[in-house]
């Protein structure tokens, strides 16, 4: 069974960008970290070498058409990364299998989970 994502989980884009998820839902916690609910990841932007963002682990290196960088913005995870068994307030939690589209200066790509932020709670 896949691990549940919690606050502090790290997602990556295909351009080496790494971003720590900063918001978890405190109604369900694992070792004091709130679980990440589906949809909360949508719209997050990876930082670039010239424009760091809160939670940036490593910069996205996707170039912009006119030079510089245009880091990836992630879309919400596809439903195959949502738990079918564990919800909080009717919203599924995200799993280590989560991923989705990432849009940058290069077009559309993918994001994936690099680290779920915990190794205790698993579900489907």
Provide structural commentary.
There is one protein chain. By secondary structure, the chain is mostly beta strands. The chain is built from no helices and ten strands. The strands form three sheets. It has a six-stranded antiparallel β-sheet, with no helix packed on it. Strands 3-4 form a two-stranded antiparallel ribbon. The protein has a two-stranded antiparallel sheet with strand order 7-8. The model has no long low-confidence stretch (mean pLDDT about 95).
Helix-strand layout with pairing:
Elements: E1 10-13, E2 18-20, E3 25-30, E4 33-35, E5 56-58, E6 73-74, E7 82-88, E8 91-94, E9 99-104, E10 107-115
Antiparallel strand pairs: 1-2, 1-10, 2-5, 3-4, 6-9, 7-8, 9-10
Task: Give a brief description.
By secondary structure, the protein is mainly β. 0% of the residues lie in helices and 38% in strands. The protein has strands at 10-13, 18-20, 25-30, 33-35, 56-58, 73-74, 82-88, 91-94, 99-104, 107-115.
Record field, number of beta strands: 10
Into which percent range does the helicity of residues fall?
A: under 10%
Radius of gyration, in Å, reads 14 Å
* Count of DSSP-assigned helices: 0
Major β-sheet strand ordering: 5-2-1-10-9-6
Order of helices and strands: EEEEEEEEEE
Low-confidence stretches: none
Largest sheet: 6 strands, antiparallel
Distance between the termini: 6 Å
From the spread of the alpha carbons, the general shape counts as: elongated
Strand content: 35-45%
Please state the average pLDDT score. Answer: 95
Based on secondary structure, the structural category is mainly beta
Oligomer description: single chain
């Amino acid at each position: 069974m896949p691990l549940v994502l919690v606050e502090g989980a790290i997602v990556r884009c295909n351009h080496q960008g790494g971003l720590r998820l900063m918001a978890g839902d405190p109604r369900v916690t694992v070792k004091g970290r709130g679980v990440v609910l589906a949809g909360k990841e949508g719209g997050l932007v990876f930082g670039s070498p010239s424009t760091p963002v809160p939670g940036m682990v490593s910069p996205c290196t996707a170039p912009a058409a006119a030079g510089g960088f245009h880091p990836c913005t992630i879309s919400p995870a596809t439903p195959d990364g949502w738990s079918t068994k564990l919800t909080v307030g009717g919203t599924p939690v995200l799993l280590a299998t989560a991923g989705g589209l990432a849009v940058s200066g290069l077009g559309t790509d993918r994001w994936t989970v690099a680290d779920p932020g915990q190794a205790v709670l698993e579900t489907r």
